[in-house]
Design goal:
single chain, mainly alpha, 0% strand, elongated
Length: 165
């Protein structure tokens, strides 16, 4: 019985906590990537693109919303000039992560679905899609709960006023 109660409370805690399986990136790694990009100078275009991709990855995995927005902007600016389907898939995935981190779940889902059109069996994108759908479902359930609670409070208030009269 205690195990069932413990499992219940664990599932409720997991439901309300914002945990996902995406890695986080700290400011030291971002600073290192920024330094790497700044020190490139006039290197090869391919090396420059790799450094910018690492910086973009670090930014969209940051806990700081400003960093996430910078990463999104960098990726969106470079997406149109990406000829390789593999690199385009990677950029779409990172954009989806960025929008997921910033709370724009519909846009994130749209981008991850584009990734899956390029590579349908990509497990990383499939996992992100599941996390997005779980978050959308959770937000919907919480929203319904808030609406029902508000309706109950209003109905209770009306009933209380009706009894006073």
């Amino acid at each position: 019985m205690e195990a069932k109660i413990g499992n219940f409370f664990e599932s409720v805690t997991n439901f309300f906590s914002a945990s996902d399986q995406l890695p986080w990136c700290d400011s030291d790694i971002i600073a290192g990537c920024e330094k790497e990009v700044a020190e490139l100078g006039t290197g090869s275009e391919e090396l420059k693109n790799e450094c910018i991709m690492r910086l973009s990855w670090a930014l969209v995995h940051s806990r700081r919303p400003d960093d996430v927005q910078r990463g999104i902007a960098m990726l969106e600016a470079s997406l149109a000039s990406t000829p390789s389907p593999l690199k385009k898939r990677e950029k779409l995935y990172l954009l989806a992560v960025g929008y997921f981190r910033s709370g724009d779940y519909p846009r994130s889902r749209e981008l991850v679905e584009q990734c899956l059109m390029i590579e349908p069996n990509w497990r990383q994108a499939q996992s992100l899609k599941k996390a997005i759908e779980d978050r959308i479902t959770k937000d919907g359930v919480i929203g319904i709960g808030i609406a029902v609670t508000a309706a109950g409070l209003i109905a209770g208030g009306i009933a209380a006023l009706a009894r006073k009269k």
